[in-house]
Amino acid sequence: MLTGKQKRFLRSKAHHLNPIFQVGKGSVNENMIKQISDALEARELMKVSVLQNCEDDRDTVAEQLSKGARAELVQVIGNTIVLYKESRENKTIVLP
């Protein structure tokens, strides 16, 4: 689990990132979770945006993605979800 200080640190790091994935009408599926998991391994920190036509609410989507990809949910702000997962191969972010 992340501490408040670590979440603040990750939020500031994520601020300038653009969402890589969009969750839309099909909502969350296995394929998307796999892709997000792979992307997190490559970059550790990422944003996912939830589109207006998504059938689930953003908190449900955030929970499904973080559980599925075994990632930490850093923040849900507006329709954007910030996820973090420590990379095994390319660790670049050092948490405070």
UniProtKB/TrEMBL annotation:
PROSITE patterns: CRM. Keywords: RNA-binding. Residues 1-96 form the CRM domain. The keyword Acyltransferase does not apply. Pfam families: CRS1_YhbY. InterPro entries: RNA-binding_CRM (IPR001890), RNA-binding_domain (IPR051925), RNA-binding_YhbY (IPR017924), YhbY-like_sf (IPR035920). This is RNA-binding protein. The keyword Transcription regulation does not apply.
